[in-house]
Backbone:
């Protein structure tokens, strides 16, 4: 593509950035990957990773959409994230630099992190956790969360991390659905100077969950918590016992064996358990980090997401370690005690790459540029964005104020399901604020209409992915039919993956993601299903029926508005509406709390009884409600 011909607001990378990047010529690499996809990934997989046993075939697509990658290979992602570094100088390099909200700091070298992971792996093995078991992890953003995940992977168990912002009901349904036998949690987490009482919330779930045999609790905040004798154990007590042996074998796994499940919200009903594997996920997540964020040995990489989401799984825990990089992790809120906290840490730790979400940027932007301007941010060389479309205004602020106009912004589009970046620039690619640019090398992205025909430039359509990739989810845990139905049935004839987003493609082939086409709401970048929030509302005795929609918000992207029909006998009042908001907070977690509740007598429905959320959305935003021919009354 000739630079002169590009349309719109274009930011070109400097020649220095292009020359020093791992991939200076995107088009050439993309063409190579497109010409021979298995050959492309096979070459990378042999060059950058260690396998106990090589694969027989890179890609098996004979049973699509149940794709297999690196067929018959033996591997463990932890072997590549930790074990192999023990033989090189990486052993003495910082793997993780941590700062707590109160200012406490800890640094783990690769050797030290490996030591902790080995000990904890021995502990959970002694509790009977082994290959194929499920372990639920419910913790704050602290190093032990990473240690727990790695220990599970090391013994071959599947972790299921539940975000610490979720509450009892959400935790319970995820424990039950996965049949976890062990829960790893902590007494509490620091957030905005206060304690989130995770162990108390966990007790509410574990008491009712049938499968949990043991609970391991990390002491973080030190407040009094209830420990059930025989069931609950302190992490530090266990780690001091002889069972916590540093001599721990890494389980030899098949490349296609599950590494973890991670629940994410979907259109209907229960959350979906996305399943990722040891082999393909390792190759895909590590390669995308290396190329997109151009990881070099001297970098200090800061992915400011939560490890409880896929962003943290892929880009805090696994791929930085597989690349032998130094990661920074911060426990608390960006504004605690003041809105300069992040910038202070960028200066203090000389962060070179910062990866965060539009909602965080917009949130910090509100406080004005005098906060970041007080700090030396010149160590930064690349910036990143993820979670929802970034509005050009926030992009430009991030670029000018934080990046001093010299740091390219990698706007990465991907999903829990995709495991790694899918639509993303590389540092050598010209940028347009608000566009995630094009598919990663080998990823065939398109925007199509109902029939699957490509739409004209700048027309809205369905985003589709036309080729498989190594880090793709393999199935929904224990629900393969739903996997096929949700992601592969819309364009089954063509064999395309449907992410559930709408998008436009411009004259230059750049993708502009618009938003979800289903009943999923992005609040501060977090993905919430209307169904889960609605069932939390209906679990309140006063509520008969409810419908939830997302309403655009300047900082959070969307906020939640709920409509409720009350049961006979319940009286509508301001205080009841407040009570219902609080109820969702306790059931599901603070992030799912509706900002507005409207108590109504009826909801717009189709004749078949489906709630028409689009009508509610249009009404709320004062727009035309559109075609109402399917409305029941
Ligand atoms: C959905 C996936 C992948 C990590 C965090 C979210 C939206 C994500 C972008 C982006 C526009 C984006 C999409 C997608 N999304 N990144 N750069 N530009 N939209 O993972 O919770 O599975 O959510 O987030 O709607 O489908 P997730």
Residues:
């Amino acid at each position: 593509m000739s630079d002169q011909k590009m349309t719109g607001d274009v930011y070109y990378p400097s020649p220095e950035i292009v020359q020093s990047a791992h991939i200076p010529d995107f088009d050439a690499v993309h063409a190579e990957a497109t010409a021979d996809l298995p050959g492309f990934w096979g070459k990378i997989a042999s060059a950058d990773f260690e396998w106990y046993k090589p694969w027989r075939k890179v890609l098996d697509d004979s049973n699509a959409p149940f794709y297999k990658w690196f067929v018959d290979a033996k591997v463990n992602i932890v072997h590549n994230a930790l074990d192999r570094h023990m033989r090189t100088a990486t052993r003495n390099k910082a793997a993780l630099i941590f700062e707590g909200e109160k200012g406490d700091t800890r640094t783990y070298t690769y050797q030290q992190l490996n030591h902790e992971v080995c000990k904890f792996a021995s502990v959970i093995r002694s509790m009977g956790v082994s290959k194929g078991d499920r372990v639920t992890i419910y913790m704050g953003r602290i190093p032990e969360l990473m240690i727990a995940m790695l220990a599970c992977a090391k013994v071959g168990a599947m972790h299921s991390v539940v975000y610490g912002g979720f509450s009892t009901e959400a935790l319970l349904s995820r424990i039950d659905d996965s049949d976890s036998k062990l829960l790893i949690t902590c007494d509490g987490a620091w957030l905005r100077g206060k304690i989130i009482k995770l162990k108390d919330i966990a007790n509410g779930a574990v008491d009712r969950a049938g499968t949990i045999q043991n609970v391991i609790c990390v002491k973080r905040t030190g407040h009094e918590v209830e420990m059930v004798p025989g069931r609950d154990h302190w992490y530090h007590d266990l780690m001091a016992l002889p069972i916590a042996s540093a001599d721990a074998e890494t389980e030899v796994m098949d490349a296609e064996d599950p590494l973890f499940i991670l629940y994410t919200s979907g259109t209907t009903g229960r959350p979906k358990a996305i399943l990722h594997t040891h082999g393909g996920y390792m190759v895909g997540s590590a390669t995308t980090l290396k190329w997109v964020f151009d990881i070099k040995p001297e970098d200090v990489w800061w992915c400011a997401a939560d490890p409880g989401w896929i962003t943290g799984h892929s880009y805090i825990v696994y791929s930085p370690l597989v690349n032998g990089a130094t990661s920074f992790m911060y426990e608390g809120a960006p504004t605690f005690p003041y809105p300069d906290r992040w910038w202070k840490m960028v200066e203090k730790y000389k962060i070179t790459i910062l990866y965060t979400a539009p909602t965080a940027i917009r949130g910090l932007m509100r406080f004005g540029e005098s906060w970041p301007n007080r700090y030396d941010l010149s160590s930064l060389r690349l910036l990143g964005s993820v979670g929802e479309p970034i509005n050009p205004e926030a992009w430009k602020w991030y670029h000018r104020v934080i990046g001093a106009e010299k740091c390219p912004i990698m706007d990465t589009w991907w999903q829990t399901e995709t495991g790694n970046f899918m639509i993303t620039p590389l540092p050598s690619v010209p940028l347009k604020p608000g566009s995630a640019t094009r598919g990663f090398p080998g990823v065939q992205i398109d925007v199509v209409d109902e029939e699957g025909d490509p739409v004209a430039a700048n027309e809205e359509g369905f985003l589709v992915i036309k080729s498989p990739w190594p880090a793709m989810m393999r199935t929904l845990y224990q629900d393969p039919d739903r996997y096929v139905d949700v992601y592969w049935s819309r364009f089954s004839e063509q064999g395309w993956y449907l992410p559930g987003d709408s998008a436009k493609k411009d004259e230059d082939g750049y993708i502009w993601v618009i938003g979800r086409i289903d009943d999923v709401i992005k609040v501060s970048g977090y993905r919430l299903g209307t169904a889960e929030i609605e069932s939390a509302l209906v679990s309140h005795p006063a509520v008969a029926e409810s419908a939830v929609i997302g309403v655009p918000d300047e900082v959070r992207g969307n906020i939640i508005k709920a409509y409720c029909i009350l049961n006979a006998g319940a009286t509508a009042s301001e205080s009841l509406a407040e009570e219902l908001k609080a109820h969702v907070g306790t059931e599901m977690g603070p992030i799912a709390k509706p900002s507005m509740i409207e108590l109504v007598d009826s909801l717009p429905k189709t004749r078949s009884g489906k709630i028409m959320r689009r009508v509610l959305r249009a009404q709320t935003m004062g727009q035309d409600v559109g075609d109402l021919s399917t409305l029941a009354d």
Remarks:
- The longest strand covers residues 543-553.
- The mean pLDDT is 95.
